[in-house]
Amino acid sequence: MQDFGGRGEDSSVIVTLPECSAFSDIPDEALTKVFTYLTVIPRQPGVKFIIILDRRLDTWASIKTALARIAASFPGNLHLVLVLRPTSFFHRTVTDIGFRFSQEDFMLKMPVVLLSSVTDLLRYIDENQLTSEFGGTLDYCHSDWIVLRTAIESFAVTVKDIAQMLQAFGTELAETELLDDGKTIEYLLESHTDKYNKLKEAIRSVSKEGRHLLSSLDSTSKGDDPQWDVKLLGQLRDMEAAFDGFFEKHHLKLHQYLQLLRYEKSFQELCLDHLLAQERELHTSVNTLPQTEQALKKLDGLESNAKEVMARAQIIILHGHQLSAGHHYAMALIMQRCNELRHHCDTLSVALKTKQSLFLQTHQLLLSLGLAQTWCDDGAYLLANQLVDKFQSKEGAQAALKDIEKFLEEAPSMLSSGVDVLMIEYEAVITPHLQMIQNRQTSLRKLADKHVRPVQLVAPRPENPPRSKSPLFSPKHGTVHTQILYINAISSLKNKNRHRYGDLADLFISMRSNHVMRELIETERIYVEELLCVLLGYRAEMDNAELSGLLPPILRSKRDILFGNMPEIYNFHSRVFLQDLEGCLEAPEGVGACFLQRKECFQMYEWYCQNKLRSEALWRQFCDCDFFQECQKKLEHKLGLDSYLLKPIQRLTKYQLLLKELLKYSADSEGTSDLQGALTAMLDLLKSVNDSMHQISITGYEGDICELGRVLMQGSFSVWISHKKGPTRMKELARFKPMQRHLFLYEKALLLCKRREEHGEGADKTPSYSFKHCLKMTAVGITENVKGDGKKFEIWYSGREEVYVVQVRSTNIERIFFLKGMKLKNLKIRDGQNLKRVGVRTTLTGIQLIQLTDEIKGSKNKQLEKYTVYT
């Protein structure tokens, strides 16, 4: 039996409207829904429809009404309407007349064919596609078709419900709140797994139902319905596969989160910090043998406990490596914990070994001192018991000498090694610093010997030294005493010459300081002359009528871009700063105050450096201009204008180098603090210039960036963002990988930007920074040290609602600069708020910045020289 209707030509679907006296009573909305449903059952694109309207027992009025409703309600591609007209003579005649007059109205809307009998249907439709009521052979049962369609629609609704259930469960999993409680996570794992199993069972049940329906369709028909069921089953399988993959990832992350909680708990339960505190409390200042033995006993107990704890730490480290090898999502955090444990274990182990070695050496020293003291007491007792009267005879003297020699042979090992061995041991403990001092003394002596050659008074050497009357002072027994006198003589000679060499060293330092000062003034004069040469030889020549033909008009209007504010810089240096420096020629200690007094004037370099990028772009556009070639020829310069436009930037970096040299030769002298302040000011200026040049590349900031104040500092960092107070969500678990952010610290805010790839070619490459976050300084706090990693610090915002963990890329110099700048900014803002309440205004001094320079003053020059002007 066929469960679907027939097909006409071009596989058009046949829709039969049998005799129905109540057809006119069907609401239009219901009729439209029926037609719409019938048209969506075929799944082929562009399918056509043929309607057979059986009205053999009806009237022309009914036919006309039915055709009008079909034209208004049928939504499909209507290919043909076949109408079986009434069979009675009267109604057939009326129908023919009515159709003749109304044919054009119907034909404009749809093709209508009026048939006289069922036999006429065979001209349009094959008899195999017609049911028995129309004289065909198609075996079709409409009630069975309704049952089949009901089953298919029910299956489709069930599949849709399953999809909604899966989506709701997936949303529930994604929005799961993860608390720092292992039992809660275990409960979530169990409950989520139960829900997953129930949904899987529902999916299997629906799949089984769908396969049963498909087998029923395969056994009864070969139409479109089996294809529709196959499509639904395919969608169900795809949903099941996607759901399995999603839940597998969710279950894995939840399980890994539970592993992380347990690992953190085991990490926190270790007592390494307590052991390190006990080790620090174990003082090394022991003065007696019992104290040393007691300290060794405590150290042994502490070492026993430390071995047990460090063994547990090794197990935790091994477990952490296993988790990392399993591609745990928090691999970075786990490896950080492993590194912390390893660092603490190494620190504790080295500290215990160092103290044990120190205590053992102290114990051995105290034992040796005790033996030496006993031996000395015995020696004094021996000498006191020897009678002087017995020394008068040869035999008595020999016996006393023999007793002393025997006593010396029984001396402790540390006293029997001799003076030469003691001297070697003394040389072995000379530190590298003492060696450097001795080398400097040697150099100064050679320098002094070239200029001063004092006359040496030599006393005549006696032929025979005086003999001692007592055997105790014979040459054999006087060796130690002679060596001591020799050492004292050498020390006395050194003390006498120390003052003379010290004066020479001061003279040498003064000469070097004057030399640096002369270099500073001479290079300043050359710098002023070069600026004047550029302004007269290039900038002023742009107004020369004789060269106007060589100069492009657009370049004349942009000379302020090409030269920047070089005239302002020249006026400052030629009229003010050069005279100030020349006034310090005979008093180099005053140059620091000179720089500090003119510190604000140097801010003009900031605008020059910011304009340098536009100036370079303009120069590259017109560098081959005949005007520049002619000016260079007149000036007899070997280098082009672009080299001289770099002079202000080069001069700015030269100042801090010369100040460093002056500071090196002015230690602990008058004006040292001013020199240090001047160096700090120039370093800050260099960094401020560099930072402001980066600022112009920020994109995406909607407000006025000038309202944030000056750029105090900037740099690239690795940043982790977390929300400490709120619960962690599954969507945030992927944030264990750090983000690379470029931070700009302003007076009123901290901007977090993302550095974009440089664009351009060659010298045209410039970085850009996409704005991401803005933190107001009034709500920013700092935690300097993140446990276990000296390169990290925290920036927290709005009472730790947002926490940014920042890590420097290389050395701690960047971290020190940034932390000090953040502290200084917070202090300024808070002081400003407090003073605003009482109506007082004030400013902060540069103490913090000077302290910052003092902290990093000992670092290598390469680390500080990276804070130079961006060119």
From TrEMBL:
Keywords: Guanine-nucleotide releasing factor, Phosphoprotein. Residues 1-142 form the CRAL-TRIO domain. GO terms for biological process: dendrite development; intracellular signal transduction. The keyword Cell membrane does not apply. Residues 512-692 form the DH domain. GO terms for molecular function: guanyl-nucleotide exchange factor activity. One of its GO terms (cellular component) is cytoplasm. The keyword Transcription does not apply. SUPFAM superfamilies: CRAL/TRIO domain, DBL homology domain (DH-domain), PH domain-like, Spectrin repeat. It comes from the Eukaryota. Belongs to the MCF2 family. This is MCF.2 cell line derived transforming sequence a. The gene is mcf2a.
